[in-house]
Amino acid sequence: MSARTDPAPLEVHGLPHEAFLEEVHSFEFWFQSVQGYLAGTSYGHRPGASPAPLADAERERLVTVLCSYCVGETAALEGASGLIAFAPNRLAKVFLSTQVVDEGRHLEVLLHRLRELGVADPESEIAKRASPALLHFKRRLLELVAGRDWEAALFAQNVILEAMEFTVFQTHAQHADPITAEVLRGIVKDERRHIGFGENELGRRLRAAPHSRARLGEVKRELDHWVLESFEETLRSLDVPASERPALGRDYLQAVARLGFPQ
């Protein structure tokens, strides 16, 4: 299977709903979405890009933050792969298989970036430096997956986790060195797709079964603490001024609120 080479891209938003889902959940659509920004890159950035000099303290902060990012991407990789087994239909299974590839690539490029920064053994550094709050979140997400709770696990992963990563990565990219910024901007482009899938799937289910909202609200209340705590840990490591941190927390909560959950 290869990427579509039609001269004019398909306008998916004009398709009937079922045809729209068939298209945007497909590997063909995935090929189109990634080839535009991955072409000419190696491990998430342009080969030969000149690294910006980092002071020792800056490098240490960056390594610590990237270690936490690796935990988040590992959670998403393991979560998405586990969700495939009990996804409710073929389209969801196909989409999640594209997400598994995305998450595996994200983890790979972050590990490679750690090595570029001189980390000889990224796995041991992740074990030492990763955010405790994010490790707790990962454990809870994988418990929901192991329990085959489709709605709660998908909500935790493709809405809460992806919204958290989208918000943090987007902010970090604005202040990062050029190579790290390019890697993060590439990851963010994938996160938009993942959030869209979660919001679409759960939005339809909540409209059909409004009583499910209360249960997912409990999941949100349980996980919000760990999400916001990991925000705080990460933003401290990035040296983001305390005055800016509440705004980022609000950005995350607003993303989750699009499904109708109060902030």
Residue stretches low in confidence (pLDDT < 50, at least 5 long) are: 1-10
> Would you tell me which CATH topology applies?
Ferritin
CATH superfamily: Ferritin, core subunit, four-helix bundle
- Return the CATH class: Mainly Alpha
Strand content: under 5%
Radius of gyration: 18 Å
Shape: globular
Please work out how many helical segments DSSP would assign: 10
Number of E-state strands: 0
**Terminus-to-terminus distance:** 43 Å
Textual characterization of the structure:
The chain is mainly alpha-helical and 263 residues long. Helix content is 74%, strand content 0%. Mean pLDDT is 85; it is low at 1-10. The chain has one domain (54-257): Ferritin, core subunit, four-helix bundle (Ferritin, Up-down Bundle), CATH 1.20.1260. Helix 7 (150-175) packs antiparallel against helix 8.
List the helices and strands and how they pair.
Elements: H1 17-24, H2 27-38, H3 56-84, H4 90-116, H5 122-129, H6 132-146, H7 150-175, H8 178-208, H9 212-237, H10 245-257
Helix pairs in contact: 3-4, 3-5, 3-6, 3-7, 4-8, 6-7, 6-9, 7-8, 7-9, 7-10
Brief account:
With 263 residues, this protein is mainly alpha-helical.
Give structural attributes.
263 residues; mainly alpha; Ferritin; 0% strand; globular; disordered N terminus
